[in-house]
Amino acid sequence: MNSTRGRLTKDGIRIYEPKDFVCMAKAGHVAATILDEIAPHIFVGQTTGEIDRIITGMVIAHGAKSATIGYKGYQHASCISVNHVVCHGIPADKRIKEGDILNIDVTVILDGWFGDTSRMYVAGKLARRSERLIQVTHDALFKGISAVKPGNTFGDIGNAIQTYVEEHRMSVVKDFCGHGLGQVFHAPPNVLHYGRPGTGPVLEEGMFFTIEPMVNLGRPETKVLADDWTAVTRDKSLSAQFEHSVGVTSQGFEIFTLSPTDTFHPTYK
Ligand code: MF3
Ligand code: CO
Ligand code: CO
Predict the structure, then answer these.
(1) Ligand 1: which of 35, 88, 117, 243 to mutate, judged by most atoms within 8 Å of the beta carbon?
(2) 12-255, which class in CATH?
(3) pLDDT tens, position by position, 10-33
(4) Inter-residue contact 165 to 172 (CB < 8 Å)
(5) What are phi and psi of 195, to 5 degrees?
(6) DSSP string of the chain?
C-alpha cells in the first residue's frame, strides 16, 4: 500500500493532496449508496444476518471490497447495532422487532481508498423517545461537521457535539471515537466526540477523518460483551449513532459519504 502520499503533521495526521479528495469521494459514494440501497431490506421480522449478506453482495456489485471482513478477525461486511447496542453489533439470526432502532455501519475499500459511514434505521412504528434520540444524534453529527475548517481544533469539533447533546439531556459515549482514514482504515487522530474548545490538534486542509458520535438516552458508560465486539450501554438505555467521512477544505469541509438519494436521516427527509 502506498502510504507515502502527502506529509504528516507533528501530531502524525496525514495531509492529503487535492486529487486525493476525488478518490475519497468515490469510495464514500459507494459506502453511502449501499446504505441507501439497504433501506427497503429493513423490516419487522428481518434478521440482521440477512441484511449483512445483502450488504456483502452490494459491496461486490459496486466493485469494492469490504474493509471489515478480516479486520482484526471480524467476519462481516457491516456492523448492525440494535437498540441498546452502542456500536460493533455483529449481524446474526435474531429478528428485528416492531419499534427497533438500528445503526448500520459500512466501510468499503475502493481502489485502495476507504469510505466509512453509518446511519440509523427504524422498523415499524417509532417511539417518540427513539425519534428524539435519533434526531439529536443526527444533528449532533452536523454540529461537529460545522466546526470543521482550517484553524479550528479537534476539541472544537468534540465540544460542539457534546454541548449540543448535553443541552438535550442525553449523553455522549466517550469509550469510542472517530478516526483518521484515507488509504488506511484507522489512522491518527482519535476524533473525540467531547472536549474543550481550542484543545487538540489544529485542523489543516487535506486532513481526512470520520466523525461518528454515539449518543445514549441514559448514562454514557458502555461495556463490551464476551464476543469481544458488541458494545452496549451499561444501563441498557437506547443508543444511536451517525457517521460521515469528511475532508478539510480551504474554506471548511467536504462530506465524502453524503446520501445520493438524500435519505441519510431515516424519518425526516
Ligand atoms: N466502521 C467502524 C468505524 O466506524 C469500524 C468497524 S470495525 C469492525 O470505525 F471490525 F467492527 F467492523
Ligand atoms: Co469509522
Ligand atoms: Co464506521
Answers:
(1) 88
(2) alpha beta
(3) 999 999 999 999 999 999 999 999
(4) yes
(5) 150, 180
(6) ----SSEE-TTS-EE--HHHHHHHHHHHHHHHHHHHHHGGG--TT-BHHHHHHHHHHHHHHTT-EESSTTGGG---SEEEEETTEEE-PPP-SPBP-TT-EEEEEEEEEETTEEEEEEEEEE-SSPPHHHHHHHHHHHHHHHHHHHT-STT-BHHHHHHHHHHHHHHTT-EE--S--EEE-SSSSSEEEEE-SS--TT-SPBP-TT-EEEE--EEESS-S-EEE-TTSS-EEETT---EEE-BEEEEE-SSSEEETT--TTS-SSSS--
Query: Looking at residues 90-98, what average pLDDT do you find?
Result: 97
The closest of 129, 223, 133, 131 to 171, measured between CA atoms, is: 133
Atom of ligand 1 nearest to the CA of 212: 4
Q: Which residues line ligand 1 (CB under 6 A)?
A: 68, 71-72, 74, 79, 88, 105, 107, 116, 179, 210, 212, 229, 243
Choosing from 52, 66, 71 the residue with most ligand 1 atoms within 8 A of its CB, the one to mutate for a pocket test is: 71
- The atom number, within ligand 1, closest to the CA of 71 reads 10
- 232-246: average pLDDT: 98
Write out the residues surrounding ion ligand 2, Cβ under 5 A. 116, 210
pTM: 0.97
Which CA distances in Å does 95 have to 118, 188, 240?
20, 37, 19
Ligand 1 atom closest to the CA of 78, numbered from 1: 12
